[in-house]
Amino acid sequence: MNRRIRVVIADDHLLMRRGLSMTLEEVNEDFELVGEACDGAAVLRLVEETQPDVVLMDIRMPGIDGLEAVERIKTTWPQVAVVMLTTYADDALVLRSLKAGVCGYLLKDCDLETLLNTLRSAARGETLLQPALMARVSQMLTHPQETEPSPPSPLPSAQRRSARPFELTERECEILAGVARGERSKEIGLRLGLTRRTVDTYLTTIFNKLGVDSRAAAVAIALEKQLLPPSS
After folding, report:
1. What is the C-alpha to C-alpha distance for residues 133 and 107, in angstroms, rounded to an integer?
2. DSSP readout, 133-176?
3. How far is CA 39 from the centre of its chain?
4. Worst-scoring range by mean pLDDT, 5-14, 117-126, 146-155, 164-173?
5. Do residues 199 and 188 touch, judged by C-beta distance below 8 A?
6. Which H or E run contains 50?
7. Which of 59-63, 126-130, 208-212, 223-227 ranks highest by mean pLDDT?
8. How large is the angle between the packed helices 131-142 and 91-100, nearest 10 degrees?
């Protein structure tokens, strides 16, 4: 039997936390709830104490908000995956979250299967973003004049590397487009006739070129620099 996925829930609304806790307990063959937090400071303490596989994070919380908490988690505990679960469908927040290194961005009205699949993907180190949200972010970046400009958000220190110019080969663009669609390395490899190891090697090169260290951040940068078509 596979080890259960250890999850921390961070949300400032008690009823939301309890509802999520009960949901995970009902599917306890896959998940183990290891803690709940009502704000960013509390979730940072919990992550340090419990070292979970995934943090399910609200974006708006008192004190340290979700975005700042993600950046601190990815800097100190890069192996811990984070999934945003929020009521805010703001395109700029989705992009900032991806840059910070989240593995998923879900709205609180998502269905249960989407939530559980996103947690499972995050625990595997994969990125899963609802297609509608990805399309909206891509549209925003393709037509920036239609969106109110927002100040750029710097990458967390863990992602600040000496990046080469944003020049991707045709094959690298094909692979990154697959990542943007939520495909796993194995699925990308099957589609392109490559081994999984070869796909992972390409991804390492892509990360180095873009100056990032996660699939989510790579997709965010690629969208921002218009390296991928809106349909990706």
Report:
1. 9
2. HHHHHHHHHHSGGGS------PPPGGG---PPPS---HHHHHHH
3. 19
4. 146-155
5. yes
6. helix 40-50
7. 59-63
8. 100
CA 11 vs. chain centroid, Å, equals 17
Q: End-to-end alpha-carbon separation of the chain, Å?
A: 36
Residue 36 forms beta bridges with which residues? Answer: 9
- pLDDT for res 32: 92
| CATH no., domain 150-224 | 1.10.10.10
Query: What SS3 state is found at 207?
Result: helix
Structure tokens at 167: 């020049």
Neighbours of 44 (CB within 10 A): 20
Question: Which residue shows structure tokens 């690298």?
Answer: 172
- Identify the sign of the CA torsion 219, 225, 228, 232: positive
Amino acid at 223: L
> Is the CB of residue 54 less than 8 Å from the CB of residue 32?
no
Domain at 5-136: CATH code: 3.40.50.2300
CATH 3.40.50.2300-classified regions of the chain: 5-136
